[in-house]
Design a protein that fits this description.
Layout: H1 24-27, E1 28-30, E2 65-67, E3 74-76, H2 82-94, H3 130-149, E4 165-169, H4 173-179, E5 194-199, H5 204-211, H6 217-229, E6 233-235, E7 273-275, E8 281-283, E9 299-301, E10 309-310, E11 314-318
Parallel strand pairs: 7-10
Antiparallel strand pairs: 1-5, 2-3, 3-11, 4-11, 5-6, 7-8, 8-9
Helix pairs in contact: 5-6
């Protein structure tokens, strides 16, 4: 119904027709373990209404973001997915803007239809450049600012006391590491990096497409049931790990999949390495990397669009005219 990066209503009724998709979060379920889900983060103890110096922009805070600091900085709970990049393109096209320079680089996609196939809509957008991402962040700032100032006293006067300015940008390395709980001094921000897992046999067809397997669905169904009987334990980080064939990845995975860290952030480590403000540096490692490249402090480098590099944004709302 609404965009998770802007809060704007969809321009098209994307979910009006039935699509043969399977919800990833139902396919792979991590089993909570004692001591692994304790919330020690600031974010869950302080709600937006309590921040007197920061305007409460939307009922639940900024679109798609989780509060990170006392001065109102928030960070996207998940990597920006393909569907949100498509909605970005739709908005630009509706305003008469040429979207040719917003297209992901085809040669930098993990599979040829990764951006166009609805199957991957909620998988992280990759194959985009640093410059394209900066343009997205600036656009996001503008459209949210315009939306939330509508109807306020003095609108659309940017000098009005009630005027809100929204800033969306890539995080700095220090901000990204803060979100990854670097201060704990643990390589992965948490002691709980592995949990028992249960795979839904009904997801056999979904996992066949997700993995690119040539095995027939009925056999995958049987193999999943056998796998579950062994009470498997799996890493909560999506890295290049030893997997049964039906869990192997031809692409990055669902952005809201797996366990979150204590800030309730998805896939901060693994899945795709994430761009930061420091150009050419990505954080967190990817689905093609070893676990040692997916630590809180590890870095990787990129020189252009890549199938393993995506991003999430930092976002904040302020009222600069209020004394």
């Amino acid at each position: 119904m609404y965009s998770t990066t802007t809060g704007l209503r969809n321009l098209t009724n994307e979910f009006g027709i039935s699509q043969p998709l399977f919800d990833d979060y139902k396919a792979i379920k991590f089993v909570p373990s004692p001591g692994c889900s304790n919330d020690t983060s600031f974010v869950m103890r302080m709600d937006w209404a309590a921040l007197k110096a920061v305007p409460q922009v939307l009922p639940l805070g900024m679109p798609g973001s989780i509060l990170l600091t006392k001065d109102g900085w928030a960070i996207d709970e998940a990597e920006v997915p393909n569907i949100e990049w498509k909605r970005y393109q739709q908005r630009l096209a509706a305003s008469g803007t040429d979207i040719d320079n917003t297209q992901p680089t085809g040669a930098a996609l993990p599979v040829s239809d990764y951006f166009t196939n609805p199957f991957y809509d909620y998988y992280p957008v990759v194959g985009v450049s640093y410059e394209q991402v900066l343009a997205f962040c600036k656009w996001r700032s503008r459209v949210i600012s315009k939306m939330i100032n509508r109807g306020k006293p003095g609108a659309p006067d940017s000098l009005a006391t009630e005027h809100i300015v929204v800033e969306s940008r890539l995080p700095t390395e220090a901000e990204w590491e803060q979100a990854a709980l670097v201060k704990r001094g643990l390589p992965y921000g948490s002691k709980c990096t592995e949990l028992p897992v249960v795979i839904d046999p009904k997801a056999a067809a979904y996992l066949k497409q997700r993995s690119g397997s040539t095995v027939v669905v009925s056999q995958i169904f049987a193999d999943i049931k056998a796998y579950n009987q062994g009470r498997p334990v799996r890493s909560t980080i999506n890295y290049d790990q030893s997997e049964p064939y039906f869990l192997r990845l031809a692409t990055p995975a669902y952005v809201y999949g797996g366990a979150t860290n204590d800030y309730h952030l998805y896939n901060l480590l693994g899945n795709v390495a994430e761009m930061i403000q420091e150009r050419g540096i990505a954080k967190g490692g990817s689905y093609r990397d070893p676990i040692t490249a997916c630590t809180v402090t590890s870095r990787s480098q990129y020189t252009g669009p890549a199938p393993t590099v995506g991003f999430r944004c930092i976002i904040r709302a302020t009222q600069p005219n209020r004394k």
